[in-house]
Structures are given as C-alpha cells and as structure tokens.
Amino acid sequence: MLASMPSPSALTPKTRSCVPYAISLPTWCCRTIPSPSSTRPRPFDSCQPSDRLSPRQLEVLRLLAQGYSTREIARRLKLSVKTIETHRAEAMKRLDIHEIAGLVRYAVRVRLISAES
C-alpha cells in the first residue's frame, strides 16, 4: 500500500502505468450482479441436519466427526466400506461441503458431537 500517491505529472511513462486508478461503475451494474451468498445457500444455514440427511448418513457423519476411519465405521455398522463412502459422499453433496474437515466442523456446529470429543 502506498503512503501517498504522486501527482500524475510527476510520473514517468513507465511508472504512470503502475498507478491504480479508481473506476466508477454505474449503479445498474452493481444491482444486476448477484452477491455470492445469494447464488446458493451456505452449508450451515437454516435447517437441522435431520432435515437434509437420512438417519444412516447422520450416523456415518457422527462417527466420522468422532475420528473413526471409513473402515472402522464399516466394521462397526456391519456395512461395506463402499456403502460408507457412498453415505459420506451423499451427505457432502446434500450439505455442499467438499472435504472431511468441513464435515467435522459442520457436525460440531449442529451439535452432532461436542467440540471436546
């Protein structure tokens, strides 16, 4: 960030191209561009997890958030690893979350698990 802007007459042709200029946009332009928050719902908004996820997806999510591996969850629920991966992928899709860490944060936020566990 520059402390002070030099006057345009004090600039050489090379430095003149480096000075940022403010651009004024018409107000109609700003109104037609949707804000990022209005284009799609955030993963943590509105409904309870039980409104978006099946009971099995909630169970898989809870166990994932508690730190169990996919293989451990499959063994514990007596299901295949592929089935657990499918439940996890569908939960991620429905919640619009793209990584496991995001699922854990979501589980803590909606109190599927406590932050201490």
Descriptive report:
- The chain is mainly alpha-helical and 117 residues long.
- It has a domain at 49-109: Arc Repressor Mutant, subunit A.
- The protein is 53% helix and 0% strand.
- It has eight helices and no strands.
- It has helices spanning 13-16, 27-32, 36-39, 49-52, 55-65, 70-77, 81-95, 100-109.
- Helix 5 (55-65) packs across helix 7 (81-95).
Offer a concise description of the structure.
This protein is mainly α and 117 residues long.
Mean pLDDT: 75
- Output the radius of gyration: 25 Å
The number of E-state strands comes to 0
Q: Helix share of residues?
A: 40-55%
> What is the architecture of the domain at 49-109 at the second tier of CATH?
Orthogonal Bundle
**Measured distance between first and last alpha carbons:** 44 Å
What's the CATH topology name of the domain at 49-109? Arc Repressor Mutant, subunit A
Give the percentage of residues in beta strands.
under 5%
Q: Overall 3D geometry?
A: elongated
Order of SSEs = HHHHHHHH
Q: What is the CATH H-level superfamily of the domain at 49-109?
A: Winged helix-like DNA-binding domain superfamily/Winged helix DNA-binding domain
Structural classification: mainly alpha
Instruction: Compute the number of helices.
Output: 8
CATH first level of the domain at 49-109: Mainly Alpha
| Low-confidence runs of at least 5 consecutive residues | 15-19, 28-33
Report the major sheet.
none
